[in-house]
From TrEMBL:
Signal peptide range: none
Family, as annotated: Belongs to the iron/ascorbate-dependent oxidoreductase family.
Organism annotation: Gossypium raimondii (Peruvian cotton)
Lineage of source species: Eukaryota, Viridiplantae, Streptophyta, Embryophyta, Tracheophyta
Listed name of the protein: Fe2OG dioxygenase domain-containing protein
Alphabetical list of PROSITE patterns matching this protein: FE2OG_OXY (PS51471)
Highest rank taxon of the organism: Eukaryota
Length: 364
């Protein structure tokens, strides 16, 4: 009589993986040919069809910021485009954004250098303690709570308002991380001015609410995957911040959910991807949309990206956020209750990237 198969012990597999501190890259470097079970998604979560594979060619808006500060007519035109993109897509790409191409390239190179250095050098930054550490390297922030692990490793750095001391940052990418975060902060301030005006508010409204106070930088490394049909680089999710500015490399893989259809966001040389976060949807009372997106795994790799999150989650911020008073009326009553950033992010992180929006929990 055949012995019964031992039951799958997911927790043991997760712990064994985590204890190596080598991440997904460590699995690939070890020469694995099969994706471990902890990364497997249910087939219904892996629908790889996109608008392109269905023969429909749609693309997210690309907004040229050239002349935004020089000419009132140009500014009005850009604000209109930002409004339309934020309402209907929740995503857009920006070109002529003021960050030099050399800085973008150096930042991507810095991510590769961090993840491809000797494991012992990376291990110094390994932690799952985000509450006291400003710099944290690991694989999957929600490793123990998500239904399946993502095929990626991440370096998290809190870059504002109190950035790490230079010696606290990884030596191989220290200078470019400091320079890039400074430039992204300037761009984020401009984008939030445009978004304020797109809501019909004064340019400084969102800034005065604290939307530009905190900046978290997530550098992602997606190794080549031997069986990309079994897993994802990043699960379907929306972002738990006000605004995200994403730098992606030439490989691609980012998709957004638009009208129940996955739409590819092809890498555009020199462009940055901008998306509305959950908190901006909440305070705009659904005026702007925080849209679900994901990253598909690929066998090319490694893919790198840098996501900069504008959020006050990292601060001891007791302020409550609710729909902006100027935007609500009898015809447009508030759709969400007031919430602190800590409560929102706490719920989001405990839930993990399970494919559902955390916003639903805070609806009135």
């Amino acid at each position: 009589m055949a012995k019964p198969k031992p039951e799958y012990d997911r927790i043991s597999e997760l712990k064994a993986f985590d204890e190596t501190k080598a991440g997904v890259k460590g699995l690939v470097d070890s020469g694995i040919k099969h994706v471990p079970r902890m990364f497997h998604y249910r087939p219904d979560k892996l629908d790889k069809n996109s608008s392109v594979s269905n023969g429909i060619h749609v693309s997210i808006p690309v907004i040229d910021l050239e002349g935004v500060k020089e000419d009132p007519g140009t500014l009005r035109n850009i604000v209109d485009k930002v409004r339309n993109a934020s309402k209907s897509w929740g995503f857009f790409q920006v070109v002529n954004h003021g960050i030099p191409l050399s800085v973008l390239q150096d930042m991507k190179d810095g991510v590769v250098q961090f993840f491809e250095q000797d494991l012992e050098a990376k291990k110094k930054f390994f932690t799952r303690d985000y509450s006291t550490k400003k710099v944290a390297y690991n694989s999957n922030f929600d490793l123990y709570s998500s239904p399946a692990a993502n095929w990626r490793d991440t370096l998290f750095c809190l870059m504002a308002p109190n950035p790490p001391m230079p010696h606290e940052l990884p030596e191989v990418s220290r200078d470019i991380m400091m320079e890039y975060s400074k430039q992204v902060m300037q761009l984020g301030c401009l984008l939030l001015e445009l978004l304020s005006e797109a809501l019909g508010l004064q340019p400084d409204h969102l800034k005065d609410m604290g939307c530009t106070q905190g900046l978290g930088m997530l550098s992602h490394y997606y190794p080549a995957c031997p069986q990309p049909e079994l897993t994802l680089g990043t699960t379907k999710h929306s972002d738990n911040d006000f605004l995200t500015v994403l730098l992606q490399d030439h490989i691609g893989g980012l998709q957004i959910l638009h009208q129940n259809q996955w739409v590819d966001v092809p890498p555009t040389p020199g462009a940055l991807v901008v998306n509305i976060g959950d908190l901006l949807q909440l305070i705009s009372n659904d005026g702007f949309r925080s849209v679900e997106h994901r990253v598909v795994a690929n066998c090319v790799g490694p893919r790198v990206s840098v996501a900069c999150f504008f959020s006050t989650f990292f601060l001891p911020d007791l302020r409550t956020y609710g729909p902006i008073k100027e935007l609500i009326s009898e015809e447009n009553p508030p759709k969400y209750r007031e919430v602190t950033m800590r409560e929102y992010a706490g719920y989001y992180n405990a839930k993990g990237l399970d494919g559902t929006s955390a916003l639903l929990h805070f609806k009135l």
